[in-house]
Amino acid sequence: PADVEALGRSSWTLLHSISATYPVAPTAQEQSDVKSFLGLFGKLYPCWVCAEDFQEYMEREKIKASSRDEFGRWLCGAHNEVNRKLGKKEFDCNLWEERWRTGWKD
Ligand code: FAD
Description:
- The protein is mainly alpha-helical.
- It has helices spanning 2-21, 28-44, 48-60, 68-85, 96-103.
- It is built from five helices and no strands.
């Protein structure tokens, strides 16, 4: 449905933008904050089937956030999991920072 798609696009924009501004060398507190945020995000995400699958993904693939690049790639992997589920093309995670930080037009 259109709202699940619009919600998804906006949400990925928010999440990837958070990874783009995440510190290159995060403190223990910053790492813990981003994990707490995603844990709550996964609980509150207002598409219940999406939220359930996302929480299961985070159980299987623990969040990696010891650097900006590591977190950006983890999030790219999480997004690719949804892409696969929906039959969309997988995104090349080597390009995550170019897409979301240094920028190109989509
Ligand atoms: P989107 O997938 O929204 O992507 C937006 C842009 O991100 C793309 O144009 C591309 O430039 C870039 N991009 C694509 N893949 C990646 C990647 N791997 N890494 C970095 N950048 C990338 N929808 C459902 O129907 N069922 C679900 O179960 C579901 N679960 C979701 C779970 C979460 C946590 C989120 C945030 C969204 C979920 N969605 C789900 C929505 C779905 O992922 C899409 O957002 C929606 O289908 C719109 O897709 P889109 O093709 O416009 O691009």
